Amino acid sequence: MRWFFYNILFTIAYLIMLPNLFIRMKRRGGYRANFQERFGKYSPDVEARLGEKKRIWIHAVSVGEANLAGNIISELRCHIKDVSFVISTTSSTGRAVCEKLAQKDDVVIYLPIDFPRNVKRALKKINFDTFILVESEFWPNLIRAMNSIGKKIFLVNGRVSDKTAPNYKRLKCFFRPIFECFTLMLVQGELDKERLIAAGAPANKIKIMGSAKFDIKPIEEERIDQARANCEQSGIMASDIVVLGGSTWPGEEISIAKAWKNIANPNVKLILVPRHMERGDEVEQELASIGLKTIRRSRVKQGTETITPAEDVILMVDTTGELSALYGCSDIVIVGRSFDPNFGGQNMIEPAAMGKPVIVGPHTENFVPVMNCFKEQNAIIILDDVSKLEETLRELIASADKRMKFGLAGQKVVDSQRGSLSRSAIEILANI
Question: pLDDT band at 33, cuts 50/70/90?
Fold first, then answer.
């Protein structure tokens, strides 16, 4: 009976979300492509490939999870000869990342929307025995259907945020049978384990692995060199001090820009990389409202932007796949989705791994185990309010030693926490 009500409520929720989905399709362009895959319908070529041989199916919700999925895939390839993957995602930006990391024999698809008919249709066409879910996104119909036909289901780098934990616990009678379907749940920390158990997950199926996000691969020097060349093309020279706002959300771009503008140092340049590139027009208009000109990376690439270096010009990177390399070109990094009114945080490990001083706001709830590691070593700068950003930037800009101190401390934390991917791969291999 519970699943009957779930399907009714999910249908209602999906219909309410439809207008937003259509808006996203229009804004992102690529969101419309392959949309039929969300209903378990594939082109003849993709359908033939999905059924031709057994693959491991790994699901990554969006960009962050997709990058992590790529690392998990690389680790599994080290242990299994001639293995290939079905890689599914939910977002168009996530798909772009998945297509870059996929090898010739892998297949990239969208995850079917969690209606019983879609799930049944997809499972009939995909030849797999093992499903790996990266971090979270527990779709009841999909997970229960996989379990009913004997598939092995793994959670890797699992986490339960402050926001979702009370809901899981409150709906324990609903989530328990879903969590019982998992073969193994590999989680980041003790808190994640406790929260899953409180939500009905079997304790004997949960193992703590640490955060797999620490196992990031070094960015190739060629990519960093190209990013530097791109910056120079936009008027940012190697001699400049570069402040980078990475994966920013609404409200954060203008706060960062105001702090930078007040500093008024011609040798300090600002790069903003919004988390969602379709917000480019919105961000440009906001910055123009306070008298700031924006150079947009998309227009530079198209050759439609004329560059005139000036101290009050901001480079906005409204393209995908460039942020990681840009971290290597920066001197100070501000990680987004961490200042009010936003919640949860974005990945602060990538810039820390490159030895960059990292600033975050008070909201990093999606990275509790990770942040605990940084806090213990005083290796990250946490501001309780964005109003303190200008003062903090001034201090870091004035002191190369201070920038180096925080950069080296963060890098040391990342290096000390590596190994989760290898441990996770060994656990999966022992249970398939």
Answer: confident
